[in-house]
Amino acid sequence: MIELGSVTKSFGTHQVLKGITASVERGEVVCLIGPSGSGKSTILRCINGLEAYDGGLVHIDGVKVDRDASSIVGIRTSMAMVFQRFNLFPHRTALENVVEGPIYVKKEPAAEATARGRDLLARVGLAAKIDAYPAQLSGGQMQRVAIARALAMQPKAILFDEPTSALDPELVGEVLEVMKSLAEEGMTMLVVTHEMGFAREVADRVLFLDQGVIVEEGSARELLSAPRNPRTQDFLRRVLRPI
Question: Which residue from 27, 92, 105, 243 puts its CA 20 to 30 A from 79's CA?
C-alpha cells in the first residue's frame, strides 16, 4: 500500500532522510523506532504530503505522492494522521472535531457523518464525552478523540506520530488499547513510537532508524529481542534498561 524508494529530504543544509526505501503492506502494522532526530516523523509527513521530499519516490496504492498535484487531497484523506499533540480544534466539541473532515472535506451529509461520529466516539470509550470541549478532556481522552477523527475519514491507513509521548504515564495505556484493537481489526498502521512493549506485541515489523537511514528492520519479536546491528543493540539497551 505504501512504498518509499530512495527518499531524501533536507531542511536547509541538514539532510534528514538519506535514501529511505521501505514498504507497508495492506493490513500490516509497522513501527518506526530510533533516537530523536533520526527522521521518523519526517517519513510520515512525506507520505501524506505535509512535507515535500527532495528525491526518490513515495507511492500510495501506486499513486505518486506530490503535494502540488490535485491527487494530494485524496491521498491525505486516505492516509489519516494522528499527531503527538492531538491538534484538536479547541472551540469545537469532541463530536464536532470528529465530523469536521467528513462534512467539510468529503462533503458527506451531516446526519450521516454525525451518526458515524457518535459510533466512533463510543468505540474509543468516549460516548459520554461527545459534547465536551478539548479543555474539558484529559490528554488520553483528547488523543482518543483524535483517533476517532482519523477513523471518521474511513482511511486506508493511519499514520501515528508518537501518539503517546505527550501523555502522562497513567494515560498511555488507554490510547494503546485503542490502537491494539485497530490492529486486530486489520487497519494498516505506520507508527512512530517509543513504546517498545506495544511494538513487540502489536507490530508485524519494526524499522530502526538512525541519522536518516534504516539501520535494521525485521519482525518485531526478532528485532526487539535479538537485534543484529550494534547500533540497534545499543539503542535498545538504553531504552529497555531496567529501572
Answer: 92
